[in-house]
Amino acid sequence: MGQAVSGPGSSQSLERGLLILSAFTPDCPALGISELGRRLSLTRSTTHRYVATLATLGYLEKDEPTRKYRLGSRVLDLGFSMLGSLDLHEIADPYLRRLTNTTGHTSNLAVHDDTHVILIDRVRGRPGRYHHLEYTLRVGSRLPSYCSATGKALLAWLPRRDLGWLLDRMDLIQRGPRTLTDKAALIAELDQVSRDGVAVNDEELESALRSIAAPVRSRSGEVVAAVNIAIPWSPVAMSELVAKHGPLLQATARQITARVI
Known about the structure:
The chain is an alpha+beta fold. It has helices at 12-22, 33-40, 44-56, 73-103, 149-155, 160-168, 183-196, 238-257, and strands spanning 60-63, 68-71, 106-113, 116-123, 142-144, 199-202, 209-217, 223-232. The relative contact order is 0.11.
């Protein structure tokens, strides 16, 4: 099984939780508290505490007759999400390239990652059109959902209960000059996003950076990703930028959606 990697910047609790999940294999699909403790060199009480937390979150399930644990449905969800992200990257890439070629702006594809979004594909725009933040972003970069266009496109169609749970866990700090730090104001904007079909970031993530995003859906209609273009600041009103680029973004999102299973 995996080895501990504790270091100055690591989290022991997270490490132990992941090591517990890694202990379950096709050869050992069910394990009890005592056996897990021996494998990880943890006391029974410590092992029980971590296992109980993982079970509460749905990452482990207890078989009452044997009192052993198995991997829960949340672990499968993570695996399917990763596979889906890989498929999405392959599907979306040619459409992102066409979008960037048409607009000259950097385009991105992002998926939900707890309170953040993670970029799974990215096509750089024409030289001279970059915002300085773009030089630091790459595939795998994480951005806060509440102040990014892709994040708002993914939040807007969540069931209200799920949205409330996520927002309760977000620290709505000021990131740019126009960041929405009031939860009620953010919810109102997300309602507007769901009506308009596009989301915007107007200097909310960082000064002088704007972006527009549209949702990508699965065949069942669930929003599974968001595609956006990043636009360095200009004197043009945000409403004009949305009128100019919004229909193309939505068309691109629909083209990707049409190929998503």
